[in-house]
């Protein structure tokens, strides 16, 4: 019991400090209009908040013993670190490329790209949380040997399909930046 309190207390303090920071950043962002970089920045903040919620769950050692080496940990890491970081990079590119080229990016394609990227990331990683909570192990290709995991056999092809669509959304992003850098409206 004492070791659980020792491990959980720093995570709770860290989550409190980070959440205060996010609230301040969000207030500063929302005061102005929504440009594409701000839209992706808000998306990164939301993904990082999902990671904070998961961090509180994984910080409890009694729950972490059950969730260790499951899909829950994969979903937590990818939502909190990978997706949030990618959204921040995309936000920076949407901010820098128009200033370097002197031309505007296509806003509607950027919003389409945001919806596909943020929505696709949630559709990919949210079901992994459920797989992990019921104990779905990592590093297994086929679940058919376990009766309790057969209900999740159809999720993995869905995740793969959405991943391919998410890749196509990134092609839209690159095309949007390249076309707007050479043929977009002047600023």
Walk me through this protein's architecture.
With about 190 residues, the chain is mostly helical. It has one domain: Cytochrome c oxidase-like, subunit I domain (Cytochrome C Oxidase, Chain A, Up-down Bundle). It has six helices and no strands. The longest helix has about 30 residues, at about 70-100. It is flat and about 60 Å long. The mean pLDDT is about 85.
Element order, helices and strands?
HHHHHH
Number of strands: 0
Strand content: under 5%
Give the averaged pLDDT, no decimals. Answer: 84
Helix content: over 70%
What name does the CATH topology carry? Answer: Cytochrome C Oxidase, Chain A
CATH superfamily: Cytochrome c oxidase-like, subunit I domain
Query: Which class in CATH terms?
Result: Mainly Alpha
Straight-line N-to-C gap:
61 Å
* CATH architecture identity: Up-down Bundle
Largest sheet: none
- Which spans have pLDDT < 50 for at least 5 consecutive residues? none
Structural class: mainly alpha
Q: What characteristic shape results from the CA principal axes?
A: flat
Topology overview:
Layout: H1 2-30, H2 36-59, H3 61-67, H4 71-101, H5 107-133, H6 155-183
Describe this protein with a few key phrases.
187 residues, mainly alpha, Cytochrome C Oxidase, Chain A
Question: Short summary of the structure?
Answer:
This protein has six helices and no strands. By secondary structure, the protein is mainly α. The longest helix is centred in the middle third of the chain and has 31 residues, at 71-101.
């Amino acid at each position: 019991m004492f070791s659980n309190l020792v491990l959980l207390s720093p995570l709770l303090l860290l989550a409190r400090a980070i959440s205060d920071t996010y609230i301040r950043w969000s207030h500063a962002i929302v005061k102005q209009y929504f440009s594409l970089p701000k839209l992706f920045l808000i998306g990164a903040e939301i993904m990082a908040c999902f990671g904070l919620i998961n961090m509180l769950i994984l910080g409890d050692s009694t729950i972490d013993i059950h969730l260790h080496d499951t899909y829950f940990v994969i979903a937590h890491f990818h939502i909190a670190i990978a997706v949030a970081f990618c959204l921040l990079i995309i936000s920076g590119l949407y901010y820098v490329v128009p200033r370097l080229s002197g031309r505007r990016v296509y806003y509607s394609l950027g919003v389409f790209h945001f919806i596909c990227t943020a929505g696709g990331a949630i559709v990919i990683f949210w079901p992994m949380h459920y797989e992990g909570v019921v104990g779905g192990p990592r590093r297994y290709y086929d679940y058919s040997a376990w009766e309790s995991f057969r209900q999740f056999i159809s999720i993995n092809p869905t995740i793969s399909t959405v991943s391919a669509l998410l890749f196509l959304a990134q092609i839209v992003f690159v095309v949007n930046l390249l076309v707007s850098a050479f043929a977009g409206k002047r600023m």
